[in-house]
Predict the 3D structure of the following.
Amino acid sequence: QLQFTESGGGLVRPGGSLRLSCVASGLTYYAIGWFRQAPGRGREGISCISDRSTNTQYAEAVEGRFTISRDNDKNTVYLQMTDLKPEDTATYYCASVQITFQGQCLLAATDTYWGQGTQVTVSS
């Protein structure tokens, strides 16, 4: 079971940018997703990436603003966030994701490890 450590969050003004990092020993062979959870809301999948970066997917809410990438030599998955909006405020987590027959991956694996997450706050 992978153990994830997220970092890179912070306080940013609307329209600003942040880059989140997710590190886990041995994540090279796993498809990884980014999830977020705001107070009063359930955890939502926002992006995922296949083990060799041949497939990336995004939730409609972040399409065109966020970019997921990975460096397997560094055991790291990144989420570059631009044009941030107040509604992006949440705690962000990374996790192992399930792959459907059709190749969809915005669903956490049932046995994934959940780290502490990193807080992103977008406010003026």
